[in-house]
Amino acid sequence: MKKRRTHLGITAAALVVAGSLAAIAEPGDTSASQLISEFSAQAGSAPSAARGEALFMGTHTGGKPETPSCTTCHTNNPKASGKTRAGKVIEPMALSANPMRFTDSAKVAKWFRRNCNSVLGRECSAEEKADVLAWLSSI
Amino acid sequence: MKNYMKKSLMALPFMMLGLTAPLHADERMPVVTDELTKAECSACHMAYQPGFLPARSWKTIMSTLDSHFGEDASLSEADRSAIEAYLVANAADAGGRNSWMLRGVGENDYILRISEMPWWVREHRGEVSQRAWARAGSKANCTACHRGADQGWYDDD
Q1: Are A21 and A50 in a shared domain?
Q2: In sequence order, which residues have a C-beta less than 8 Å from that of residue B121 and are 6 or more positions away?
Q3: What does the pLDDT look like over B51-83, one tens digit per residue?
Q4: What is the mean pLDDT of residues A86-113?
Q5: How many domains does chain A have?
Q6: Are residue A73 and residue A48 in the same domain, yes or no?
């Protein structure tokens, strides 16, 4: 009986360890390079950092008037912190300045969906996503 | 009668105090305790305490997230409805201590910005310098001046 209890204890401890490992691993379910490959495969074209830079730095008219550009909040230096329109700091977008960027696929999908709609008034294509990520991970 | 009047007169200053003490600024605003609400709202701005707005305001805000003060702040339907339920349950008209914040707000007023609530306007009128506004950048940036705002403290003005 005693032995069995010990066994259960070990099993429980192992489950706890496994659970916390899973919790730690969860946000890192992807990487910039993995996302770039996936998006370019979807698009059927090679990613272009130059196109990504043009999209990120450009001023657009299709979206909401308050947010004509990615730079409205992220500034024109992706290695620096940005600021939301409500005054909150946004961590740098450039992978070199912020290694945690693009490691959570759900987060990437959510913010592309929201921000492309805010800035462009539509979703971004797979090609555009690959381009922007290619630029932000190359600088 | 005389005694009654005397008592009333003595009570008058306290009554006036109760009627006009607008801010209860020394009291702590009940903070956001729901983790999902905290995480999602504070992605862009301080997670404002739900007691600042009536339920009908929160419902409107939460049903127009795709155009949220000039940005798309849309959520999955599961997250959206869970956050709305929390905000509504803790709204200014949910029966808590914050019902005084509804003074001057008509039943059909759908105020969506906390900074347009009559008490907010009253409290900030003539109080904030141009420099302080410039530093804050936005009326949505409570913590620029109220350092403990996200912990419910606004008595540092």
Answers
A1: no
A2: B115
A3: 999 999 999 999 999 999 999 999 999 999 999
A4: 96
A5: 2
A6: yes
Q: Which of B129, B132, B102 is nearest to B117 (CA)?
A: B102
d(CA B32, CA A61): 37
- Nearest chain A residue to B137, by CA: A87
ipTM above 0.85, yes or no: no
Contact criterion met (CB < 8 Å) for B67 and A64: yes
A16 versus B117: the higher-pLDDT residue is B117
Nearest residue to A136 via CA among A77, A68, A59:
A77
Q: Which of B42, B69, B71, B133 to mutate to test the interface with A (most CBs of A within 10 A)?
A: B71
Which residues on neighbouring strands pair with residue A83, listed in sequence order? A89
Q: Which residues touch B69 (CB under 8 Å, ≥6 apart)?
A: A66, A85, B112, B113, B140
Which residue from A minimizes the CA distance to B136? A87
Query: CB A131: neighbour CB atoms within 10 A?
Result: 28
Reference A116, options A38, A39, A44, A37; nearest CA is A39
Instruction: Please check whether residue B84 is in contact with residue B62, taking contact to mean a CB–CB distance below 8 angstroms.
Output: yes
Asked whether the beta carbons of residue B44 and residue A84 sit closer than 8 angstroms, the reply is yes
Note down the domain range covering A23. Answer: 1-29
User: How many Cα neighbours within 13 Å face the side chain of B136?
Assistant: 18
